[in-house]
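Backbone-to-sequence.
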């Protein structure tokens, strides 16, 4: 081992230890290079219009595949996972309206960015001036691919990252940096012959294992789509009004999910008592109070009411 290898290993160990201290569940490192295998997959996915109205997915194709085009001189991608699996869940009874678990508490963008900024500060103190940028779903970065390359899990048939120890209910963030670090090895795919996620999707959004047509996903219809929801999917939402967790809920690996340790992600106490009637009669004032710092704010009240009406009105 060269002295440079030793320095890289020591720095990598330091970063992972600090990440753990700051509350991240996992931290892995990969080398910042062009994502050769992903290029044709992404191109095909876009050509098939699987991104629907998410036009931003088609932007910055080259940057999405090469982090060195996002951060000059980038050498490493530091990936972190932060668990959001809740201890207390919303009522999931037959008539209950449902939110994706990631939207129970404070918007993860705020929480992850604060923690990642703190991690960058620790790196600067220990190592010195480092050029790097923080990314939390806010730029053309293929976060699941980088997390998989850094050994934090594999991308499952539902296209979410799966970690062997704690399943898939994680937020992902990155620091792309010019710091030379010791990369981790990727791990193999442990989905095996299981197709539970593919079989369970009520809108057939998982068109084949490892391929999701985003424009058919319940999360797309309830969050991204700004116009009327197509009639052909009425009656298929299983009462999901913001996001959808079906493909994760049925995944056998999520039997290892454990409650998160981040108070900001806890279920809003008022939301815990919400009934179907409360959802149907929600006012601007209640919406503002409940979702002030929540991902649900993205849909605005009109968008949420549109989805609630769609979900609660039976198919003719």
């Amino acid at each position: 081992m060269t002295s440079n290898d030793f320095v890289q290993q020591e720095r990598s160990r330091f970063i992972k230890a600090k990440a753990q201290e700051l509350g991240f569940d996992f931290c892995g490192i990969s080398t910042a290079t062009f994502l050769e295998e992903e290029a044709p997959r992404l191109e095909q996915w876009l050509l098939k219009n699987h991104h629907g109205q998410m036009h931003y997915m088609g932007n910055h194709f080259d940057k999405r595949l090469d982090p060195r085009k996002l951060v000059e001189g980038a050498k490493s991608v530091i990936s972190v996972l932060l668990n959001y699996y809740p201890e207390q869940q919303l009522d999931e009874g037959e008539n209950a309206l449902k939110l994706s678990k990631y939207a129970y508490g404070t918007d993860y963008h705020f929480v992850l960015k604060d923690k990642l900024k703190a991690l960058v500060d620790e790196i600067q103190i220990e190592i010195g001036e480092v050029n790097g940028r923080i990314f939390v779903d806010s730029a053309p970065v293929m976060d699941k691919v980088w997390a998989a390359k850094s050994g934090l899990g594999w991308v499952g048939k539902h296209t979410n990252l799966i970690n062997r120890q704690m399943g898939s209910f994680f937020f992902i963030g990155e620091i792309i940096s010019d710091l030379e670090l010791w990369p981790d090895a990727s791990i193999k795919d442990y989905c095996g012959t299981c197709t539970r996620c593919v079989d369970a999707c009520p809108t057939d959004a998982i068109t084949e294992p490892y391929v999701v047509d985003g424009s058919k996903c319940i999360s797309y219809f309830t969050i991204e789509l700004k116009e009327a929801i197509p009639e052909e999917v009425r009656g298929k939402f299983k009462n999901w009004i913001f996001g959808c967790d079906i493909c994760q809920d049925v995944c056998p690996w999520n039997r290892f999910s454990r409650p998160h340790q981040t108070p900001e992600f806890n279920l809003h106490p008022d939301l815990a008592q919400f009934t179907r009637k409360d959802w149907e009669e929600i006012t601007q004032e209640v919406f503002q109070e409940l979702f002030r710092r929540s991902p649900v704010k993205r849909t605005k009240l009109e968008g949420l009411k549109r989805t609630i009406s769609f979900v609660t009105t039976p198919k003719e």
